[in-house]
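@channel sequence for tomorrow's demo:
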Amino acid sequence: MTDSIDRNASSELVSQTAEEIKNVAETTKEVTTATVKGLENSTNHALEFLGMPIDVNTLIKNSIDLGINLVLALLIFFIGKWVGKRILAVINRMLSRTHLDQTVLNFLNNLLYGVMIVAIMLAALNKLGINTNSFVAVLGAAAVAIGMSLKDQLSNLAAGVMIVIFRPFGRGDVVEVGGKLGTVIDITLVNTRIRTASNHEIIIPNGDIMTTSSTNFSSLPNRRIEVLVGIGYQSNIKKAKELMLLTASKHDLVLGNPEPLVRVTALSESSVDLTLYAWTENGDWFGVQCDLLEEIKYAFDEAGVDIPFPNRTLHIEGLQDLSELIKQQGITDANNDKTP
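structure tokens (generated this afternoon):
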């Protein structure tokens, strides 16, 4: 009986305790809700008092939306840039198999990369809610203004594009442009750099290259050598021609097809000019020409073929009077020596 009374008392105590906890929780919830509403109302009143009638809920929602859009825009930019680089790498590998010039590959790679970056930036700005149409219009206006102030550079840029497309010469070619002879070091979209035989670097604007004639000495595999030698009028022309042809045929780097040829090219004032025409590979041209000149000189010396050179006669006014004066002075000195 006593145990039953204790259990009933305990049950009533637990029920009362649970009821009190429930009441406290409801009271706490009501207080919290009232506090939040009061804070929102006070914040709204404060903003209205400051002349900024902004709803806090709307501000929070807009801030969250802006943050989400900002994160998405950053993801679009970085992921798009990463994907774009991978695509450019694949395109670059495909283009490298076409055996295009390295200058063309660099130009196409830079062009595609620039287009990709612009497209990614426009997509990211569009995600942020920025009107890209007005942005493109501003870019267009800025491009026109810059183009008007840099028209000469734009002409060089257009000429650089033409050089890259039509390829009148490439890197490593020996060219003569505007009277400047040298090896092409690099071709950019604005200028071309060449290195002379004296190791001087010359920078030529691409616009000047496209508006003047240029000579590419490396575009064809073989090149003709012209060795001009003058012999005296009393020398045997046939013998001199045979010696020149024999010298050319003995040289290892002279091509047999076309065969070397010697022709009388001029009857000058003091010599009969003979020209040796021989073919060699492009890279051996200068060395072979120097060798042939030297060997022909040796062959002519051994065979007694005369190579004339200019002679000059000098006439000095008063030279005869000076000679007489020196002669008389010598006689006078001799007489003085005989005097005891």
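heads up for whoever presents: The chain is about 60% helix and 15% strand.
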